[in-house]
Design goal:
Elements (H helix, E strand, L loop, with lengths): L5 H7 L3 E2 L8 E2 L2 H14 L2 E11 L2 E10 L8 H18 L8 E8 L1 H9 L1
Antiparallel strand pairs: 1-2, 3-4, 3-5
Helix pairs in contact: 2-3
Length: 121
């Protein structure tokens, strides 16, 4: 389970909570997802990846489409943040849904202090 910072929770919570289906994240429509990415960019927050959900009978269900972005060795965190957000934006803007169902996205994010915690652990 991802331990989100309060800052990331606040930004992502503009979406629809997925706690009722056992996912510690929020589903975002296209507009919300792009707004979240804009805010992450302003704050230097990186995007590790995301998943695509389709709304089936009013309930979000994963359709198993996803993307991810890994930090390169010796890549400064801010550079990774910019690159990862560009990749997320490209994925969302170019996503072609295969059905008429509404599509939503989850985004997995990481702040610089989160990364430092991993290195110290």
């Amino acid at each position: 389970m991802m331990n989100w910072s309060e800052n990331i929770k606040l930004i992502l919570s503009s979406g629809f909570s997925l706690e009722n289906i056992g996912v510690n994240n929020w589903a975002l429509d296209n507009k919300q997802a792009l707004e979240v990415l804009d805010e992450f960019e302003r704050q230097g927050i990186a995007v590790l990846g995301g998943d695509v959900y389709e709304i089936v009978d009013g309930i979000p269900e994963s359709n198993y489409d996803n993307w991810y972005c890994e930090q390169y060795d010796d890549e400064p965190f801010l550079d990774f943040s910019k690159r990862s957000i560009a990749k997320a934006r490209e994925y969302i803007n170019n996503y072609k849904q295969s059905s008429s169902k509404s599509v939503m996205y989850t985004i997995v994010a990481e702040e610089l202090q989160d990364q430092r915690g991993y290195e110290e652990g």
